[in-house]
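#help-structures

NK: newbie question. if I give both the sequence and a SMILES, will the prediction place the ligand too? trying with magnesium ion
OV: yes, paste both and it writes out the complex. here, I ran yours:
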Amino acid sequence: MKVAVLGGGQLGRMLGLHGIPLGATFSFLEPGDAPPAGQVGSVVKAPYGDPAGLEAVASEADVVTYEFENVPVDAARRLESTVPVRPPPAALELAQDRLVEKEGFRSVGIPTADFHPVDDAGDVDRALACTGLPAVAKTRRFGYDGKGQAVVESADEAREFVGARGPGLIFETFVPFDRELSIIAVAGLDGDRRYYPLTENHHHDGILRFSFAPAPGLGEPVRARAETYAAALIDHLGYVGVMAIEFFQVGEDLLANEMAPRVHNSGHWTQDGAAVSQFENHVRAVLGLPLGDATARGHAAMVNLIGDVPRTRDVLDVPGAHVHLYGKRPRRGRKLGHVNVVGGDADEVMAGAVRVARLAGWEGPLPAPGGGG
Ligand SMILES: Nc1ncnc2c1ncn2[C@@H]1O[C@H](COP(=O)(O)OP(=O)(O)O)[C@@H](O)[C@H]1O
Ligand SMILES: [Mg+2]
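OV: that's the protein plus ligand as structure tokens.
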């Protein structure tokens, strides 16, 4: 069983780490040097849209998948004539453009914040009449980790953003959320679906810093709602594989912010905290194998290692801590690895997460799980 992966970053590496034991082999298409996935499969070094590169990575593959959503949709569609591509390229199309994505959510009954497209200064008044102030101004395409977006407090600030970043923008209502949650869902080729318990996520400077799972204090209606929304999107897209949807929780309501047609940082805790990880389940799904159990084994906290990496020896002193390094060169603001702290006691897991966060250079208090900030 050979899996071709478009992208060769840490997500590809972890697909390999969890897929190889199933008997799968991996090839990755990646333009960058020394990709993290290079240790778990062969690498074709070429741009994502390069026809020769695509042909080389997909040759003799049983399936093509992605670990990165900004691969050209056309390239994925062309591959479909020779080899199954899972998840479907339609999911890439949805995820690549925040406007298409939010319209897609609404079309299948998934609520979002109010939003409006903006291309030039002449659109600003109309957009702000829709979103109100403050608004969040974002580039429609190629944003990640909070890049390409700003909270605007006035029409003047909004026009400034448009002047600097337009055209191709979206304005959204700034949501005063109680907390951020995500759902990781997996859809099998046979129609089976599994949902991991919802994860509570805390961002800092636009980058995911901490996740707690299962999300503490979560009511049954909210969980059910998230699963219903994920199912609606899976149905709409004819989806196969792991999908993530990020939500803002406001009271008992969920507003979808974005989706990822791939394994997701907020699901990394599943490596040590769920019966079967999101990575193994994605590989199972795209290869048409039976899906695995997505239930949590206890409590989990995930701490991202950003910019620099503590000594493994020190982290492993923390009870329940599991180290996952990506083999990347340190750089400010770069995700270099993560640590999962797992256990049967929520307080002990939180205490462990605090110790790990300190080792990772986090100086402030840890965010209080359960919607406290
Ligand atoms: N409309 C919004 N209201 C309030 N906060 C927002 C809004 N949009 C984004 N954010 C904050 O910024 C973070 C990053 O935005 P997101 O749309 O997820 O972009 P990215 O693709 O960079 O992850 C979110 O996780 C959230 O914390
Ligand atoms: Mg996001």
